Amino acid sequence: MPGKRGKPDHYTNRAKREGYQARSVYKLQELQQKFRLFDSTSRVLDLGAAPGSWSRYVLNLLDSRGRLVAVDLCPLEISGDPRLEVLKLDILGQEFPQLVAAHGPFDAVLSDAAPSTTGERSVDTARSAAIVEAIIHWLPRLLCQGGNLAVKIFQGGEEQLLLRELRGTFRSARAFKPRACRSQSFETYLIGIGHTHHDAVR
Ligand SMILES: C[S@@+](CC[C@H](N)C(=O)[O-])C[C@H]1O[C@@H](n2cnc3c(N)ncnc32)[C@H](O)[C@@H]1O
Question: Is 97 within 8 Å of 141 (Cβ atoms)?
Fold first, then answer.
């Protein structure tokens, strides 16, 4: 994406040089360096994964024991890695929990999922919150006890409410905005460290 909303972007050029599909990889890199969301043997779930820069980054850090399940409505630009399973699914769809839980439980759930924006901030934040609510709702089926979460949300809606909810189900939870987020962007990430609720029912 060449400087989509303004001047040429350092992160876009760097992503191209380093072989990543999107500049968003540097948001995950910062989140991983700060919060150690997963390690080399983890089972990781990447939601809203297309075109695939987060998934590429995760695969680069996993060794042969690690596993990655990537979910999106759109196809990913990566394939052919035996540690990777790609599911073409709607996070808000009925099939989502069962089909994804069949590959879990996961040590880390990551989501960079974002609705296509309308330009109407209240609509966009509500759609973003709906995705985050669905993910949080299904966490007991998806995330191991002790597991970690990083999920994107548009600010200006329910993020404080959802953060409070996470504080009840993680050892610690906070919001964090990586430097690679565009300055005019109103996205942030909700981080949950040490999941305390795990439901064995699949
Ligand atoms: C910003 S992009 C993710 C970029 C990705 N992390 C990367 O680094 O390549 C947001 C993605 O969320 C996906 N998405 C939005 N709503 C979704 C939904 N309800 N179910 C599944 N994927 C969704 C979009 O298709 C889009 O590919």
Answer: yes
Q: Residue 59: CB within 6 Å of ligand 1? A: no
Fold of the 10-195 domain = Rossmann fold (3.40.50)
Q: Is 152 tagged catalytic?
A: yes
The domains of the chain are located at: 10-195
Is residue 137 classed as helix, strand or coil in its secondary structure? helix
Answer whether 51 contacts ligand 1 (Cβ < 6 A): yes
CA–centroid distance, residue 113 to ligand 1 (Å): 4
Q: Map tokens 């200006």 to a residue.
A: 156
Residue 50, ligand 1, Cβ within 6 A: yes
pTM above 0.85, yes or no: yes
Spatial separation of the C-alpha atoms in residues 111 and 181, rounded to whole Å: 15
Instruction: Note the pLDDT tens digit of each residue in 146-175.
Output: 999 999 999 998 999 999 999 999 999 999
SS3 string, 39-81, reads: CCCCEEEEECCCCCHHHHHHHHHCCCCCEEEEEECCCCCCCCC
Question: At 29, which helix (H) or strand (E)?
Answer: helix 25-35
